[in-house]
Amino acid sequence: MIINAILITVFVAVTYALWREGLVGAAVMLLNVLLAATAATAWYEWLAGLAFAWFPSYDYLLDFACLWGLFCVLLLVLRETTDRVSRTRIKVRKPVEMAATPVVAALAAWVMVCFTAASLHTAAVPRDFVQATPEARMFFGLAPDRRWLQWVRGTTLSGPFAAASATAGGPRDPAFDRSADFILRYAARRQTLESLPALRVLPKEGSR
To answer: Which carries the bigger pLDDT value, residue 118 or residue 94?
Structure first.
């Protein structure tokens, strides 16, 4: 119930905020959110690996922090860039504005729900807090986390974030969740965390 409440709150808050920006503003933010969230999901493991070298005892906190930190930075940069580029306000006919704005705002909100749901798997919380079992479908069976993971996996395997020169499974492999085991992997990780006396640990060498 807590997870559902969080995701509903995200959906309502984002929809309301973008609805107030109008059709053009909501459409631009939809693209910004989609790009920032996709890039953050595709690249956060690389950033967490770098952070782990400096803060190894915070191993269980790094993934969530890097994922959201990268998303926020990218979104701020994209928002600032689009605001500077599109200084002229585009006028849209009022009937179109009234009909399309809530739809576009809701689409952006759904992207945020999907990204948020997927990010919760990386949080330093008990295993069952996110899902009763790794096979369960969250948010009333809609499974926004699985939708998001499929999207990012597709963009890194054959989409704009893919790199043909990289070796599959190698250190420069750009594919995100190539084996489609993200949910199972993080469920096991959270279960391991439950057995530890504290969040800060002294990880074994090469644990990442």
So the answer is: 118
